Structure to design on (325 residues):
């Protein structure tokens, strides 16, 4: 079936709230040692950051996406705006606030990346919630916490699914988790010791990170493990989602952001996507993330038109499956 000529191509509206950066990416043979200089094999400058990459991914998968972030004016802001593609921008910059700059080193032989960034440290934003009229799902990445809290709380009040990109623990994240429906964590995510409490009840495995996070609010908690299976605790039931093999790994930069953006595109089906089929949504997201590491850059997978079209169809079919009969 050609999904481009079917009713499944309706573009659901989603929001991504969080960090935007300007990424300076250099491919190197290996990481330099102390006081060592290396010649890069290539260099690229592009917009990036977890919320921005997730937003661009969701747009490529058929969603109408607005990114709520801090971009600001000047050359850095202009460069980030140029990289938004089809994503709309709600810029919450105040005063001299602007997008962060990230320096990224990608190791040529393995595709592994090392990142240095200021993130959203010390940036003051306009924190009131955006207009959520017609929005089907919201992603927050924990950056610009006051803005994320206001948005997630309003989304929860309106019954709109909220997805957390749990790349790492950030101070105050426990308050945000109270308004989150699905928390998708990175392999490196850890709770502070005072929040990692013993599990209550046999249904949740004792000492489990997923159970500890679930007690803070989300009904679905999952954790990615690179090429390994995604662990899931959904409505107190454990499951795993295999990750398709990527073949040769070219670049892991932004793979986690792509995973979250693809899951956001599936959760755009609305609250029905939070039930038993949420595991199927994670399977679709894993397909997209696997494709992303086989190409350079977070969105290199989209240059393969046939493959990108198939992944877009997969996301559209999932959303269609969740529609009320």
């Amino acid at each position: 079936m050609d999904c481009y000529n079917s009713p499944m191509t309706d573009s659901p509206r989603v929001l991504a709230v969080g960090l935007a950066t300007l990424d300076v990416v250099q491919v190197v043979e290996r990481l330099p040692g102390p006081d060592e200089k290396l010649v890069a094999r290539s260099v690229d400058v592009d917009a990036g950051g977890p919320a921005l990459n997730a937003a661009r991914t969701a747009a490529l998968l058929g969603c109408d996406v607005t990114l709520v972030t801090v971009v600001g004016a000047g050359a850095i802001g202009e460069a980030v705006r140029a990289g938004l593609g089809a994503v709309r921008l709600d810029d919450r910059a105040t005063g001299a606030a602007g997008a962060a700059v990230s320096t990224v080193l990608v190791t040529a032989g393995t595709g592994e990346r090392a990142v240095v960034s200021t993130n959203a440290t010390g940036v003051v934003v306009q924190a009131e919630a955006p207009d959520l009229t017609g929005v089907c799902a919201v992603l927050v990445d924990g950056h610009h916490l006051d803005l994320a809290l206001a948005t997630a709380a309003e989304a929860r009040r309106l019954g709109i699914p909220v997805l957390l990109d749990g790349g790492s623990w950030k101070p105050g994240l426990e308050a945000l988790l109270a308004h989150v429906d699905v928390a998708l964590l990175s392999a490196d995510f850890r709770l502070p010791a005072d929040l990692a409490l013993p599990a209550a009840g046999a249904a949740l495995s004792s000492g489990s990170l997923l159970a500890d996070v679930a007690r803070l609010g989300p009904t679905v908690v999952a954790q990615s493990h690179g090429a390994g299976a995604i662990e899931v605790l959904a409505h107190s039931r454990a499951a795993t989602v295999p990750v398709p093999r990527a073949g040769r790994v070219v670049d892991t930069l932004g793979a986690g952001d792509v995973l979250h953006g693809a899951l956001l595109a599936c959760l755009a089906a609305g609250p029905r996507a939070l039930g038993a089929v949420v595991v199927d949504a994670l399977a679709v997201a894993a397909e997209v993330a696997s494709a992303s590491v086989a190409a350079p850059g977070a969105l290199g997978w989209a240059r393969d038109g046939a493959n990108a079209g198939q992944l877009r169809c997969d996301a559209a079919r999932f959303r269609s499956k969740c529609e009320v009969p």
Residues 3-19+48-98+125-321 form a domain with the UDP-N-acetylmuramoyl-L-alanine:D-glutamate ligase fold (CATH 3.40.1190.20). The CA atoms of residues 3 and 310 lie 9 Å apart.
